[in-house]
Amino acid sequence: MSNNLYRQKILILDFGSQYTQLIARRVRETKVYCEIHPFNMGLGKIKTFSPKGIILSGGPASVYDRDAPMAEGAVLELGVPVLGICYGMQFLTHLLGGTVARAVDREYGNATITIEDDKDLFHGLGKGAAETVWMSHGDRIDRVPKGFEVLARSKNSPVSAMVDRERKFFGVQFHPEVAHTPEGPKILRNFLFRVCSCKPSWTMTSFVRRTIRGLREKVGDGRVICGLSGGVDSSVTAVLLHKAIGKNLSCILVDNGLLRRGEAQEVMEIFRGYMSMGLHLVDASRHFMGHLKGVTDPEEKRKIIGREFISIFEKKARELGGAEFLAQGTLYPDVIESISFKGPSATIKSHHNVGGLPDVMKLTLVEPLRELFKDEVRQVGLELNLPRELVMRQPFPGPGLAVRILGELTGERLDILRSADVIVEEEIKKAGLYEKVWQSFAVLLPVRTVGVMGDERTYENVVAVRVVDSLDAMTADWSRVPYEVLGAISNRIINSVNGVNRVVYDISSKPPSTIEWE
Predict the structure, then answer these.
(1) What three-state secondary structure class fits 292?
(2) Segment (H or E) for 291
(3) Is 31 left (phi over 0), alpha (psi -120 to 50) or beta?
(4) What 8-state DSSP symbol labels residue 120?
């Protein structure tokens, strides 16, 4: 995936750490381009990538495990600076002849290190300074390799950081990429700018310019079709392509009847007003509802929606005719999952995506966002002058409200959920939380409860409210929404949505729960 247009590149070799994506995000925040690749990336590919520096991630293994991940030793002979983090530091030590041993006590959580050398990595922190860091390790360095010296110590780790200045090899036992290491960003910036001599050239302005140029070169006079959902990923993809190839782009919005209230019309208005592009709305709501009648199993719902989406999208594309390319809003976390050294994650649930179309339609895939994290996509959207309300829109599942209605889908149940969902969005926005949380939405449960309304007994539906905080949806925690906001949401739903007499708040984290309920 490496793009040779990016001359200031950092290579992150992934040894399986839960924080590897966070390392990449922190590097990107400094406006330095980086990519994550498996620890066993071939030497030839690394040379082609031509990194200004290499970061070795942490990982759950011990270097003494039988199947411990080991990168090629020749990686350390490329003449570029290397920073090993946690397991990456232990790998460096083990490979270069130092001693890695089991720590007396496993060190997990906040720890205090004392800086013994404030050059290079710890520049600006001060010699003798005590710094709070985040540790997570069972092994530690007892003896540094030949040529190394100790930069910092902690009570449990006599070598909390080390350096071989001649070869520009660094190791830290802690995690500078996490928020629990307050000076972590400064430490990473020191490595990137003082050690690797990087320049902050990775900006969304430069990305837009390069991407439009690259799309013109790739597509030429060819025609592209793009599935437009109104979400930020597909919207930004469409706008980039429109700027690159103009009328040779055709966008298809399939209304499956499972969208939020007024969503299809809103998206059409935004894009018709924003630019003149080939935008086609296919109203397939009756078609989908017919195929979903009586279906209650969540996986079966997803499969039906995915299958019928492909069928309808393909039919419309044939009507338009002449397309050679299919545009898709694939993001970098999707790419990382596919190249992880552990292999793709086990399937928790299926997601329908137009990624299934190329095999059916024999089209060449165009993925202009595959280098970006979600927050970078939003920055690109703002760079392209897309409306902020669209750019900052919260993620919405491909199968739509089908996975937020537990049990059978009916017109009546969809109306109930849409009404409740509008209230959740309005109250979250009114409280100034909409852009601060990852997602906020309502779920209609397949249960009824007894209530009292107007001195009469009721037996009606339950709505669950789900609000989560996350960086990339791989993990998430329930949001601590103020009680008064939850109270306003509950009161409005119960008082104004016919058929609901109870509202509950979901306080589950991911894992073990998922963000969506189905």
Answers:
(1) helix
(2) helix 285-292
(3) left
(4) G
Structure tokens at 274: 């924003």
Residue 322 has a CB neighbour count (10 Å cut-off) of 11
Angle 474-58-23 from CA coordinates, rounded to 5°: 55
The residues spanned by each domain of the chain are: 9-195, 204-391, 403-505
* Cβ neighbours for 39, distance < 8 A, ≥ 6 positions apart: 13, 14, 15, 16, 56, 57, 69, 70, 71, 341
Considering the domain 9-195, what is its CATH architecture?
A: 3-Layer(aba) Sandwich (3.40)
Q: What is the pLDDT of residues 117-156, one digit of tens each?
A: 988 999 999 999 899 998 886 788 889 999 999 999 988 8
Count the Cβ atoms, other than its own, within 10 Å of residue 268.
17
Report yes or no: 453 and 496 within 8 Å, Cβ to Cβ.
no
Q: What is the pLDDT of residue 17?
A: 87
> Which CB contacts under 8 angstroms, 24+ apart, belong to 417-420?
417/442, 417/443, 417/444, 417/463, 418/260, 418/261, 419/261, 419/493, 419/496, 419/497, 420/444, 420/463, 420/493, 420/497, 420/500
Q: Report which secondary-structure segment, H or E, holds 269.
A: helix 263-274
> What pLDDT, in 10s, does the model give residues 434-461?
999 999 999 999 999 998 776 677 889 9
Burial class of residue 286, CB neighbours in 10 A (0-12, 13-18, 19+):
exposed
CATH 3.30.1330.10 fits domain 204-391: no
Binned at pLDDT 50, 70 and 90, residue 347 comes out as very low
Is 262 exposed, middle or buried, given 0-12, 13-18 or 19+ CB atoms closer than 10 A? Answer: exposed
Three-state DSSP at 286 gives helix
Residues identified as active-site:
86, 175, 177
- Examine domains 9-195 and 204-391 and report if their fold is the same: yes
Which residues have C-beta within 8 Å of that of residue 390, sequence separation ≥ 6? Answer: 230, 232, 235, 270, 381
Q: In CATH, what number does 403-505 get?
A: 3.30.300.10
Pairwise CA distance, residues 101 & 144, whole Å: 11
Whether the upstream peptide bond of residue 185 has omega within 30° of 0, thus cis, is no
**Which is it for strands 99-115 and 82-85: parallel, antiparallel or unpaired?**
unpaired
Q: Please provide residue 404's backbone torsions phi and psi, each rounded to the nearest 5 degrees.
A: -115, 5
Question: Which pTM was predicted?
Answer: 0.82
Check if the beta carbon of residue 441 is closer than 8 Å to that of residue 424.
yes
pLDDT (tens digit, 9 = 90+) per residue, 398-420? 899 999 999 999 999 999 999 99
| DSSP H or E stretch at residue 235 | helix 232-245
String of b and e for 43-63 (b: at least 16 CB within 10 Å)?
A: eeebeebebbbbbbbbbebbb
d(CA 518, CA 400) in angstroms, rounded, equals: 11
Tokens read off for 207: 């990305």
* Parallel, antiparallel or unpaired: strands 500-505 and 249-255: unpaired
Q: At what angle do helices 232-245 and 374-383 cross, to 10 degrees?
A: 50
> What was the pLDDT predicted at 350?
41
